[in-house]
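C-alpha cells as discussed.
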C-alpha cells in the first residue's frame, strides 16, 4: 500500500514539474524523492511521471491520479486535526436532555453559545421530564441534563443555573386576571387548579403542595399534567388556573394571562445542569464548562442538589 509520504512527494513533483524544487519544498534531497515516486508507481502498477523528455511531465495516469492524491492527503490532514481536537473537547457528540420549560428559558442561549464557541460539537437535544433524564444520565443515554431537583446524591454532580419565580396563569376573563392589583397566594384557596403530575413532574408537585400547606389553602386539583405548555393549553380552555415558572412568559399563549403573585417569593423554581460523577469525555466536559460559564448563577459545583 502506498504511503502518505509517497503521495506528498508525487503531489510536490506534479505541482512544480521539477524534482529539485519539489525536494526543496519537502526539505529532502532528490534521491529519496525519486525513490518515493518509483515506489508509488510500483505499488500502483502504472507510470505517473514521463521521464523520457527533457523536462518533467505527468502521464495521463499521473494527471488522473493527481486529483485523488490531493483528496486523500487532504482527508488525512482533516482526520489528524479532528483527532487532535477530541482531547480538548473541540469536536464530538454531546447528548443534552432538557425539560419543556427549560426550552423557553435557557436552551436557546446554550445552543447559540455552543455553535459560536464549539462549532465542532454536534449537540443532540432530547426533551425529557426530569425523572427520565436522571434515568438516562445513569444509563449513559444522556451526557448532560437540564433538570429540576432533587438529583440523587453521589452518582451525579450539578451546577445551579437558574432560579425563577412562579407565576399565576389564568384565563384572560378570570377574576384574578384583573391588573389593578397582584393576586396573592390566598386568592387560590378553593380555586380549580391544573396541577402537576406527582410522578412525572414530582418537583413541581411537591413544591406546590408544600406552598399550599404553608399558606393554609386548598385549591381543587382538576387535572394532573407533566408539561407546562399543556397546562397553559388547559388554562386557556377554561379548565382552571395554574402556577407555572416565569419562563412560560416566552410561550405567549393567547387568552392566558401570566400574573406575578404575592406571598410566594420565597419558593423559586430551580434548574440544574447535571452530569455523571464519572464523566471524563472531553466534549461533554467542554459543553458543561461552556454552559456553566454562560449561564451559571452559582460558581460552586455541588454533588447534592437536594434542597
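Sequence:
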Amino acid at each position: 500500500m502506498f504511503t502518505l509520504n509517497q503521495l506528498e512527494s508525487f503531489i510536490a513533483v506534479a505541482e512544480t514539474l521539477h524534482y529539485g524544487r519539489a525536494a526543496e519544498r519537502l526539505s529532502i534531497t532528490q534521491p529519496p524523492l525519486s525513490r518515493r515516486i518509483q515506489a508509488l508507481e510500483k505499488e500502483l502498477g502504472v507510470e505517473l511521471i514521463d521521464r523520457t523528455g527533457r523536462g518533467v511531465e505527468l502521464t495521463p495516469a499521473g494527471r488522473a491520479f493527481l486529483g485523488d492524491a490531493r483528496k486523500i492527503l487532504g482527508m488525512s490532514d482533516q482526520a489528524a486535526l479532528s483527532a487532535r481536537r477530541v482531547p480538548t473537547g473541540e469536536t464530538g457528540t454531546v447528548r443534552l436532555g432538557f425539560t419543556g420549560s427549560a426550552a423557553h428559558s435557557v436552551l436557546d442561549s446554550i445552543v447559540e453559545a455552543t455553535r459560536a464557541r464549539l462549532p465542532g460539537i454536534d449537540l443532540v437535544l432530547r426533551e425529557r421530564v426530569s425523572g427520565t433524564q436522571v434515568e438516562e444520565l445513569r444509563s449513559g443515554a444522556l451526557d448532560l441534563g437540564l433538570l429540576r431537583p432533587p438529583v440523587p446524591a453521589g452518582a451525579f454532580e450539578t451546577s445551579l443555573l437558574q432560579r425563577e419565580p412562579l407565576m399565576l396563569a389564568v384565563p384572560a376573563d378570570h377574576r384574578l386576571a384583573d391588573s389593578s392589583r397582584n393576586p396573592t397566594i390566598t386568592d387560590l384557596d378553593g380555586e380549580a387548579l391544573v396541577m402537576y403530575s406527582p410522578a412525572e413532574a414530582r418537583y413541581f408537585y411537591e413544591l406546590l403542595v408544600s406552598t399550599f400547606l404553608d399558606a393554609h389553602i386548598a385549591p381543587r386539583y382538576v387535572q394532573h399534567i407533566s408539561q407546562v405548555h399543556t397546562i397553559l393549553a388547559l388554562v386557556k380552555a377554561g379548565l382552571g388556573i395554574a402556577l407555572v415558572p416565569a419562563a412560560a412568559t416566552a410561550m405567549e399563549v393567547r387568552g392566558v394571562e401570566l400574573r406575578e403573585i404575592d406571598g410566594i417569593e420565597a419558593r423559586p423554581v430551580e434548574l440544574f445542569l447535571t452530569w455523571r460523577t464519572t464523566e471524563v469525555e472531553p466534549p461533554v466536559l467542554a459543553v458543561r464548562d461552556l454552559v456553566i460559564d454562560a449561564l451559571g448563577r452559582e460558581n460552586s459545583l455541588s454533588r447534592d442538589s437536594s434542597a
